[in-house]
């Protein structure tokens, strides 16, 4: 049958669209734990098989992370045998809640917190049936056991279960995360423990380094299975989150170094302490000093022991974390713009994530934006009606991390850091003109004093600006549909310098742009009036990468299909350095500078000043 040129073009575009949709699904990830049909597991215990774990008691010297050796044997080994790590240890006691559409509860209804093939480090396992693994455990408020399964992931058979392993104090306060408060001289500290308010009083002991220490009480939050919105968060992914505590450290002296410890006063008058941490207080709005900001999205989490290695989310995440830790003395604040750990309803993974970032988040403010994998769930008010959060519907991110929002269920807020004003949008709630969030965005952009805070940065998870990601290109929108039409007049009117997004798992930088047109042909050094907003996609911090379209756009200056993150350095009110660094080596692969005076910000550009007449 004859097909015309127009018909061939339509066929090609249809193929591209399907490929883009399939790649978006794979790059945005299948939670590794979801590969395991634990609800179909059956008992096949074999007296000749065994699993042994040692040491049995961890954290004797106060550590919250330890390595465990797991040895195992099976009389009938196969290539698809695997080891699952369960916590609590008595995982077979769990049953699925009634909402799970099965006639009767399965034997197992708790997903493992991590897993690995039995032959991962034992190539002769298939021959001799013996193997061992080195696995890293973190303190997660409960004990652990290790189980040997046969018959793969889809119809697993439980062959043997190990002895129990536990931390000396599983309830200990762990994994502090700093965040800026609602005032510039306030720092918040959020952490997790196993102590409820009926067992102990949580607080932070803190003060200037080497100076007087004081106690500040903490508020305590938690949630139960009914708080989340659907499976797997309410079913096989559920795990008790413990208690989340937040303390507010107020009236800080600018740039002073403070030390702090997490504490719990038990009702028998004994105390439980964390190790000591330290941070530097934030500069006041407008302060003229060196200020260094790191920004990225979509990092996910990784396991140092190589477990859960399925969807290739992994290596970029650890590399990015290691680079930030290595350069921590040159970082003042971090913005993590959505798709935080890709737990996707497997709640144990949030603890794994907070443990991974602890060296960073305990030392500098770690500010979040909400992404689709934290918030989106049908019928819960999210702007996008999909299942990306795995039933979490924002509860985990909103409870486990503090942000200075008026309402954490509406995850938009502004925060000032010295010469920077950051306006953080919640792309998972409606941002169109006339909405509550649109009014917030305009107020955030309009209310900054650019003479004192010249560097105005807009942040969001989804690409509300410009992107050459294949999935956006085949839609013809090169960004979220409707976003530019609604928001770019605000960016232009209030002269936003840089807008940074995640969601697309790659790196891209545009020229200064307005209404699809470059307002400046310079690529590396912008002197004087910027005339437009530079849009940056920084979604390649760890999650599996997504490809670009082959179409060339005039506004796209630099693309990189690799893992990396952004660093902004404000030297003073007139000079800003932008750098894109790769996670693999920490080296700079793209950069530009902005140099200007206050009068350059005041200067009118296209649509940035109100129309005037001779009469006015």
Automatic annotation (TrEMBL):
Q: Which residues form the signal peptide?
A: 1-27
The catalytic activity, as recorded, is: a phosphate monoester + H2O = an alcohol + phosphate
Q: Which GO terms describe its molecular function?
A: acid phosphatase activity; metal ion binding
Stretches assigned to the Calcineurin-like phosphoesterase domain: 292-507
Principal location listed in the UniProt entry: secreted
Where in or outside the cell it occurs: the entry states: Secreted
**Location of the Purple acid phosphatase Fn3-like domain:** 51-169
GO CC term (a single one): extracellular region
SUPFAM superfamilies assigned to the protein according to its UniProt record, in alphabetical order: Metallo-dependent phosphatases, Purple acid phosphatase, N-terminal domain
Q: Which UniProt keywords apply?
A: Glycoprotein, Hydrolase, Iron, Secreted, Signal, Zinc
Q: What cofactors are annotated for this protein?
A: Fe cation; Zn(2+)
Ranges of residues in domain Purple acid phosphatase N-terminal: 180-280
**Domain Purple acid phosphatase C-terminal per the UniProt entry, residue ranges:** 532-591
Pfam families listed in its UniProt record: fn3_PAP, Metallophos, Metallophos_C, Pur_ac_phosph_N
What EC number(s) would the UniProt record show?
Answer: 3.1.3.2
The annotated subunit structure for this chain is: Homodimer.
* Family per similarity comment: Belongs to the metallophosphoesterase superfamily. Purple acid phosphatase family.
State the name under which the record lists this protein.
Purple acid phosphatase
- Look up and give the organism this protein is from: Gossypium raimondii (Peruvian cotton)
